Amino acid sequence: MSVEDRRIVVTGASSGLGAHTVRHLVERGALVLAAARRLDRLEASAAELAGAPGRVVAFRADVTVERDVQGLVAAAVQAFGGIDVLVNNAGSEVQGPIDVLADEDFEGMLRANVASVFRCTRAALPELRKSRGAVVNLGSTVVARPPRGRFGYVAAKGAVEAMSRALALDLGRDGIRVNVIRPGIIPSELRGLTEEEERARFATGINFGRQALSTVGEPSDVAEAIAWLCGPGGRFVTGAVIDVDGGFTLGAADPS
Question: Going by C-beta distance under 8 Å and a sequence separation of 6 or more, which residues neighbour residue 140?
Answer without folding.
Answer: 153, 154, 157, 182, 183
